[in-house]
Write a structure and sequence with these properties.
Layout (H helix, E strand, L loop, with lengths): L1 E11 L9 H13 L3 E2 L3 E16 L8 E11 L6 E10 L2 E5 L6 E4 L7 E5 L7 E7 L2 E5 L4 E10 L18 E5 L6 E2 L4
Parallel strand pairs: 7-12
Antiparallel strand pairs: 1-4, 2-3, 3-4, 5-6, 5-11, 6-7, 8-9, 9-10, 11-12, 11-13
Amino acid sequence: MFYLSKIEHKLTLPPYLLALPIREAILSELERLFLDKVIAKLGLCISVYDIISIKGGSVFPGDGAPTYLAVFNLIMFRPFTGEIITAKLLRSDADGLRLSLGFFDDIYIPKHHMPDPSHYVSTTSTSKTGTWYWDYGEESFAIGDSEEIKFAVQSVSYPPIPVEQPKDSKPFAPMVVNGSLNQDGLGPISWW
């Protein structure tokens, strides 16, 4: 789920940071540049773990700030296929579930990966939200609001950044995790 990724990055240090010790100034700039950002194929940046080396400090003609080459490790969130994760339910609709880890909210359980057999019941006839139920023999078990849910990661994707988005579309997610509840031991923790 969490990985260390070694990165080499050339950065220009803004003049207002030059009063700080160089290591502290570069750490501050790296955090501004990378924290809470998704890097394709690496994942979501959680923290700068350490700075391995700093080289440079040259001021190029026409530039009012020094440029450094920093080599550092980032702590990245990138779940692997088959990993079992526990998350909170954010929303339930006819297309499936949306889950959250608190720091990452783009986890989806599509309806074809819900427990088999299961069914969806809409809250009202005009509502887009409702509740999913797992049908086990004679009983139906609900997937309730704000419940902790164990799911298996099916895929992690990095969609291309759209040039234009329709006004009524959902916000762009640079990293999307798709999961499944269709295995033993998965679903709301209260079931098991």
